[in-house]
Amino acid sequence: TLIPIGTQASVWKILSWEVKRKRTVIELKLHDDSVTAFDIPSVVPRTFAYSLLAICVIAHHYKIGVEAIQKVLEGFHLPPGRSTVFEGVHNSTIIDSSYNSSLEAALGLLELLEAMPGKRKIAVLGDMRELGAQTKDEHERLADAIMQRQIKEVVLVGPCMKQYVVPRLLELGFEKDHMNVFDNSYHAGMYVKESLLREGDVVLVKASQNTLFFEIIVELLLANVDDKQYLCRREPVWESKRNVIKKEFYDRVHATS
């Protein structure tokens, strides 16, 4: 049985998606034309509404009430590094999506960044890896999406960002003074913390994990250092890889001092 769901469906329809500071409210039209609001205690991209609709369809098939779904959602949270919200230094807000990245995921998080309450919206983005022949096209599409959102500052890390996103943004008219490019994640995080971040800013941190490890940036920006236990990749093997990135930065500083 084919059951249409989504924004254009007559029933099982997405009516609205609203991001609060640390939660999301999604309104759905269900099988009986009723409108039900789901209050999710995490910030989630708009695409999460499709998963929620699918859950509602399956629950209806098995005669499970909406109340049961809402009860489960009371304790719902995403794994570390997937749009987790933290209090940042300088009274800022950090959206930690540092675990990994792809074009569709990055587009959803840019939309979420734009929707988040706050003053300036800052996107700290790293390369999207393992795209093969699609690397150039996918990164240029990401640049197009940045231009379409109300993003005031971009901080870019990695060779793909430098090769594809930077020239595309400049071609589209993004102001060079509001763009900073790095090849080291720790350097990028120090710049954001020490030179860029202001009170009320909202910062999205997102990149593929391969050689970038953007949780380094999130850790630098945390208002409460104890929150680092909630970041992704806490095992010792990952800490050793992050230390290599930090050492590369300090070796370069010492070499030029």
Note the topology.
Blueprint (H helix, E strand, L loop, with lengths): L12 E7 L4 E6 L5 E6 L7 H14 L4 H8 L10 E5 L3 E6 L5 H13 L5 E6 L8 H14 L4 E5 L1 H14 L6 E4 L2 H12 L5 E5 L8 H7 L14 H21 L1
Parallel strand pairs: 5-9, 6-7, 6-9, 7-8
Antiparallel strand pairs: 1-2, 2-3, 4-5
Helix pairs in contact: 3-4, 4-5, 6-7
Q: What is the helix fraction of residues, given as a range? A: 40-55%
- Strand arrangement within the widest β-sheet reads 4-5-9-6-7-8
Structural class by sheet pairing and helices: alpha/beta
| Mean pLDDT figure | 95
Précis, in short:
The chain has 257 residues and is of the alpha/beta class.
Describe the structure.
With 257 residues, the chain is of the alpha/beta class. The chain is 40% helix and 19% strand. The protein has eight helices and nine strands. The protein has helices spanning 48-61, 66-73, 103-115, 135-148, 159-172, 185-196, 215-221, 236-256, and strands at 13-19, 24-29, 35-40, 84-88, 92-97, 121-126, 153-157, 179-182, 202-206. The strands form two sheets. It has a six-stranded mixed sheet, sandwiched between helices. Helix 3 (103-115) runs parallel beside helix 4, helix 4 crosses helix 5 (159-172) and helix 6 (185-196) runs parallel beside helix 7. It is globular. The termini are far apart.
Identify the notable features of this structure and list them briefly.
alpha/beta, single chain, 257 residues, three-stranded antiparallel β-sheet, six-stranded mixed β-sheet, 8 helices, 19% strand, globular
